[in-house]
Amino acid sequence: MSRERIAVGETYREQALINNERYLDMYQRSIDSPETFWAEQAQRLNWRKPFTQVKDVSFAKEDLHIRWFEDGELNACENCLDRHLPERADQIALIWEPDEEGAEVVRYTYAQLHEEVCKLANGLKAMGVKKGDVVTIYLPMVPLISISMLACARIGAIHSVVFGGFSPEAIAGRIDDGHSRIVITADEGKRGGKSVPLKHNVDNALEHCQHSEVEKILVLRHTQGNIDWHEQRDVDLAELLKEQSPDCPAETMNAEDPLFILYTSGSTGKPKGVLHTTGGYLTYVSLSHETVFDYKAGETYWCMADIGWITGHSYAVYGPLANAATLVMYEGVPNYPDCGRMARLIEKHQINIVYTAPTAIRALMADGDTAVEGTDLSCIRILATAGEPINPEAWRWFHDKFGNNTAPILDTWWQTETGGMMITPMPGATDLKPGSATRPFFGVQPALMDNDGNEIQGAGEGSLVIKDSWPSQMRTIYGDHQRFIDTYFSTFENCYFSSDGAKRDEDGYYWITGRMDDVLNVAGHRMGTAEIESALVAHKTVAEAAVVGIPHDIKGQGIYVYATLAADVEASEELRKELRNWVRQEIGPIATPEAIQWAPGLPKTRSGKIMRRVLRKIACEEYDQLGDTSTLADPHVVDDLIAEHKALA
Ligand code: WT7
C-alpha cells in the first residue's frame, strides 16, 4: 500500500455534484435508512406505476430473496430514450468511430436512436419474439449492439449478449442455456484491421448446440464479407427493418422483471448466467454514472469497454443513456493503427470523460510517450478504470500523459454480479491513493471477514463481503438458483461473498488484493481455470491439465498450462502449437495460453486434489517458496516439474 495521497483538486471540489460533506451525508443516510434513500433516488426514473415497497431482502441462505421496488412498473428503454425526447430529441446520443481511422463517423441523435430501436423492436416482434423470451446478441462494437439491447428491453425480451471474441463453442453453451430462438449477429466484425467471422461462428455454434431451438438469425451486413446463407433461417436485417414502423409502444414491465442475462466465469463448472432485473438495476447504474463520473449535461463520455462485458452494459448503454449523455462508441482497439489512436480519438471527439481498463493503459505505456505525441488532451476532465487493480506506475503515467496531472483517476471496483460500481472514488469528494478503489458507493456496506467468519474491525485484510443488498445486485443464476445461493451466500452467513480479498487501511480505504478462488483476470477478462482445463482435456491427446495464472506485464495475469499427455502421445513443439490453437478455438483468443508445460504427473494430495499453490510457484520460478509439500501423494513429481520448467525457460 502506497502512502501517497492525492487531494481533491480545488476546481473539482467546488464544481462537482458531490463533495466530501455531501458524500458523507448521503452515504450515512443510505445506510441508516436505505428505504428512504433509494425511494428518493428511484425518482430519477419515470415509473409507469409508482412502487409502494422499496426493499424486501434476506441474505439468509434458507430464505434468500432480493427484491427492490417490487410493485413498481416501468420500461428501461423508455427511460433511456423516450423520456429525453421532449427536450433532447436533437442532441447527439451516440457517436460511432469506426475501426479504420478516417472512415466515416456515424452520429445518432436521441430521436434517431429512438427510431432505430422502435423499428428493430417491431422487427423482433414480427419474428415472434415475446415478453420473457431470450434473444442472443453476438455483434461487434457497432451501434446495432446498443440498439438491439434497447429493442429487447422495449418489448420485454431478455437480452443475452455474447462477447464478439468468443468462439462457436462458447456461443453454443450460452444459446443452449438461455433457450434462445433468435440470434442477432453481423457478417463480420472489424478489430485492428482484421475481420472477425461472426456469422460463420454462429453457423458453427448451431452445430454444437445440444438442443438448438434457434429459428432465426438476423444478420447485419456490416463488412459485406462472404458468408453462407440459409434461406429458411437467415434474415437480412436491412430487409427486415425496411418494412418496420418507427412506432413501437414500450411494454410495461415489473421492476423485478428480468432485463438481461450476462455470462461470467466462476471457479467451477460452466459459465454462470448472471441475471439482472429492471428497476433496481437502472436506478443504480443511472445514479452511479452521474455521481461517480460527475457527469454534466452536454459532456461527451467514452466507456472503452466492449459491450459484451458488464462494464459495457452498465456504463456504455444503460447508465449513460438513462442520464441523456452523449456517448462515444469505438469499433476497434486502442492501439490500431498505432498506439496514438486512443489519444487522437479523444481529441477528435473532444471527450471529457474516459472509462478504460488498466491493461489498455499498460499496453500504451509500453510505447512510451508516443501514445500522446502531437495531441492536445485538455478536453479531458475525468479518467476512470475498472476490471483489475491499477498499478501505481500505470496510474501515474496515465494521470500525467492523459490527465495533464490534474484529472482524477477513479479506480472502480465491482463485478458482473454487482451490476454497478461498488467501491469507487468520486471526483469532488475523494482524495485518491493510487492502487486503491477507496470508499464504498451509496448504499454499499463492505466488510472484511477472517477465516473463521468473524468481521475484522478497523485496518486489516480479509475476504471482501457486502453485508446488505443494493438495488443492482444480481437476482439469480439463470436456471440454477441453488448455485446462486451456494456460490455467493454460503461462505459467510448473511453476507454476499465477492470472492475477492481486500485490505482496509487506517483511513477506511479499500485495496483489492484479487480473487481468492480459481478465477483468473487476463487483460481485465475474467476466466475460470476449470473452463480452460476442460477445454484442454477435450483434446484427444490430453489426459489431464492444470491451469494457473502467472504475472504478466501488460495483461496483469497470463495463462500457464500444465498438460499431462495421454499414453503413447509424444510431446512436440507442433503439439504445443496445436493445443494453443485448440484453446483459442474452444473458448476464444482471450484464453490463449502464454506457455504450455508438459507434466508427466501433477502434484496431488492423497485425496486427489491438485495443489495449485505449488504449480503457481513453479510457474513463477519461486522454487524455494513451494511451502509444505509433505501431504503430496508423490512428492517427486515436484522435482520433475521444476526440471521441465527450467528446460522450457
Ligand atoms: C472481478 C470482476 C469492474 C467490472 C468489470 C469486471 C476484479 C474489478 C477491480 C478493481 C481490482 C478489480 C475483481 C472482481 N476487479 N474491478 N478496480 N480493482 N480488481 O467484472 O468480469 O465480473 O470481474 O474483477 O477480482 O471480482 P468481472
UniProtKB/TrEMBL annotation:
Enzyme class name: ligase
GO BP annotation list: acetyl-CoA biosynthetic process from acetate
Cofactor(s) required for function per UniProt: Mg(2+)
Domain of life (superkingdom): Bacteria
Keywords: Acetylation, ATP-binding, Ligase, Magnesium, Metal-binding, Nucleotide-binding
GO cellular component: cytosol
Pfam families assigned: ACAS_N, AMP-binding, AMP-binding_C
Domain AMP-dependent synthetase/ligase span(s) in chain numbering: 83-469
PROSITE patterns: AMP_BINDING (PS00455)
InterPro entries per record: Ac_CoA_lig, ACAS_N, AMP-bd_C, AMP-bd_C_sf, AMP-binding_CS, AMP-dep_synth/lig_dom, ANL_N_sf
E.C. code: 6.2.1.1
UniProt-annotated binding residues for CoA: R191, G192, G193, K194, T311, N335, R584
One MF annotation (Gene Ontology) recorded for this entry: ATP binding
Modifications the protein undergoes after translation, according to the UniProt entry: Acetylated. Deacetylation by the SIR2-homolog deacetylase activates the enzyme.
Residues that hold ATP according to the record: G387, E388, P389, D411, T412, W413, W414, Q415, T416, D500, R515, R526
Domain (Acetyl-coenzyme A synthetase N-terminal): residue spans on this chain: 23-80
Signal peptide as annotated in the record: none
Annotated positions of the N6-acetyllysine modification: K609
Residues binding Mg(2+): V537, H539, V542
Catalytic activity reported: acetate + ATP + CoA = acetyl-CoA + AMP + diphosphate
Domain AMP-binding enzyme C-terminal, first and last residues per copy: 531-609
Role noted for this protein: Catalyzes the conversion of acetate into acetyl-CoA (AcCoA), an essential intermediate at the junction of anabolic and catabolic pathways. AcsA undergoes a two-step reaction. In the first half reaction, AcsA combines acetate with ATP to form acetyl-adenylate (AcAMP) intermediate. In the second half reaction, it can then transfer the acetyl group from AcAMP to the sulfhydryl group of CoA, forming the product AcCoA.
Family recorded in the similarity comment: Belongs to the ATP-dependent AMP-binding enzyme family.
PANTHER family the UniProt entry points to: ACETYL-COENZYME A SYNTHETASE
Annotated protein name in UniProt: Acetyl-coenzyme A synthetase
Organism of provenance: Pseudoteredinibacter isoporae
Lineage: Bacteria, Pseudomonadati, Pseudomonadota, Gammaproteobacteria, Cellvibrionales
